[in-house]
Write a structure and sequence with these properties.
This protein is α+β, with helices and mostly antiparallel strands. It has a single domain, classed as Beta Barrel (Small Protein B, Chain: A), CATH 2.40.280.10. The chain is built from five helices and nine strands. A seven-stranded antiparallel beta sheet has the order 1-8-9-2-7-5-4. It has a two-stranded antiparallel ribbon with strand order 3-6. A hairpin with a 2-residue loop joins strand 4 and strand 5. It is globular. The N and C termini lie far apart (42 Å).
């Protein structure tokens, strides 16, 4: 087990992201959360499938990320889909601001994980795939799987000759 994987624990992944988008770059950012949200996220009660990022002014936000309210916490009305601020460096924010103004680029959450005691979010600068791109990816994946099966079968059988 490597040192990196020992310190990081993945809590949620956006499996659809790599199927629906070409990920051009990815960034690691922190999240501005309330205490009850951290407890709920640590329990794995979070969904980032429908979430997306937006740059407003000089700040970056994640919207539509569903965090189920902590069951043993305060009973006040809490919006599970509230907009949360992402913590990035100024250079990264300016870069993302410029890139998201380009036609067809979006900020997509890829993975939510713990890094030490902190909750981190990996976001990707992405461009949507066309239908033919998705079909090409599926065909390439199937071909690779067939090659793996063929080589695995050959390695197991003894050579008769």
């Amino acid at each position: 087990m490597t040192e990196k994987s020992a310190k990081e624990k993945t809590l949620a992944t956006n499996r659809r992201a790599r199927h629906e988008y070409h990920i051009l770059e990815d960034f690691e950012c922190g999240l501005a959360l309330h205490g009850y949200e951290v407890k709920s996220i640590r329990q794995g009660r979070v969904n980032i499938q429908d979430a997306y990022g937006s740059v407003r002014g000089n700040e970056v936000f994640i919207e539509n990320m569903h965090v189920t309210p902590y069951s043993h916490g305060d009973q006040r009305v809490i919006d599970p889909l509230r907009t949360r601020k992402l913590l990035l460096k100024r250079k990264e924010i300016d870069y993302l601001f410029g890139k998201t103004r380009e036609r067809g680029l979006a900020l997509i959450p890829l993975r939510l994980y713990l890094k030490g005691p902190h909750v981190k979010l990996a976001i990707g600068l992405a461009r949507g795939k066309k239908l033919y791109d998705k079909r090409e990816d599926i065909a390439a994946r199937d071909a690779k799987r067939d090659i793996e099966r063929a080589t695995r079968g050959r390695a197991k059988s003894p050579d008769r000759g």
